[in-house]
Amino acid sequence: MFKRNKHGIQIKSPEQLDKMRAAGLVVGRTLELLKQSVEPGMTPLDLDVIAEKAIRDAGAIPSFKGYQGFPATICASVNDEVVHGIPTDARKLREGDIISIDCGAILDGWHGDSAVTVPVGEVDPKLTELMRVTEESMWRGIAALKPGAHLSDIGHAVERYVKSQGKYGIPAEYGGHGIGTEMHMDPWIANHGKPGRGPMLEEGMCLAIEPMVNLGTERTRVLSDDWTVVTMDGKQSAHFEHSVAVTHNGPWVLTAIDGGEERLAQLRN
């Protein structure tokens, strides 16, 4: 049985959160394996094969494969590809590239969803900084997940941090989402905006927080494959994501191996 609040947002029981955590760990461990696997000469399809095996070996199902016709287990977005890149063997990763890997899994009917951006060998320092800013903005957004806070506080925290770090683009049309018995559920979560707006956060809500940050313009377009989103100016983009539960103790990062304890403790200090 699935409880929903007055806004139609799914509220999980403690037992259901434990199941969400199990699904999240499948995704988190798969992404750790993929991060270690990335090297020049590989193709995005090589990473997709590794991901599917890891997810199925854990007794889970890849949630992306077949979702609205998507043909693969991961989204693999290279350089100027923002999100939803289809992994193929048409090109090899090269030293200096960055690749965003988005991964989802279903375990016992519950979803986990997370993303990382990984350097391929040595990369330009400005790309290292882009990845750092994007990941840190995600953690600033996650830290805003407290009972009694408002939904827009998340995007406000993301945007405020990104803007404090330099001139970057935040694509307005892409953001986070609720997650639970489906991969994408209400509410949609912008990565920008004013604080104190939207539904109040409640214990048992599970949200996927996922900033995408571009090195240049925030403007994007979708390629002819109807999936891959790229920057309009051809500059690189980074993407990080975690699935997070709202608890009375603050955020519980379901797709982080340590539950987010280390990074959240650093932000509190």
How do the strands and helices of this protein lay out in sequence?
Elements (H helix, E strand, L loop, with lengths): L2 E2 L5 E2 L2 H24 L6 H14 L3 E2 L11 E5 L2 E3 L14 E10 L2 E10 L5 H19 L8 H13 L11 E3 L6 E5 L16 E4 L2 E3 L5 E3 L6 E3 L5 E3 L2 E6 L2 E4 L7 H8 L1
Q: Notable features of this structure?
A:
four-stranded antiparallel β-sheet; Creatine Amidinohydrolase; 25% strand; alpha+beta; 269 residues; five-stranded antiparallel β-sheet
Report on this structure:
This protein is α+β, with helices and mostly antiparallel strands and 269 residues long. It has one domain (3-268): Creatinase/methionine aminopeptidase superfamily (Creatine Amidinohydrolase), CATH 3.90.230. Helices cover 29% and strands 25% of the residues. It contains five helices and 16 strands. It has a five-stranded antiparallel sheet with strand order 9-8-10-15-16. Strands 3, 4, 6 and 7 form a four-stranded antiparallel sheet that branches. A three-stranded antiparallel sheet has the order 5-13-12, with no helix packed on it. Helix 1 (14-37) runs antiparallel to helix 2 (44-57).
Strand content: 25-35%
Q: What is the helix tally?
A: 5
Quick one: how many beta strands? 16
By helix and strand content, what is the structural category?
alpha+beta
Q: How would the global form be characterised?
A: globular
Tell me the name of the CATH class. Alpha Beta
Global mean pLDDT: 97
CATH structural architecture? Alpha-Beta Complex
- What is the CATH topology classification name? Creatine Amidinohydrolase
Radius of gyration: 17 Å
Order of helices and strands, N to C?
Answer: EEHHEEEEEHHEEEEEEEEEH
Low-confidence stretches: none
Number of domains: 1
Q: In which order are the strands of the major sheet placed?
A: 9-8-10-15-16
Main sheet: strands, sense, barrel: 5 strands, antiparallel
Whole-Å distance between the termini? Answer: 39 Å
CATH superfamily: Creatinase/methionine aminopeptidase superfamily
Helix content: 25-40%
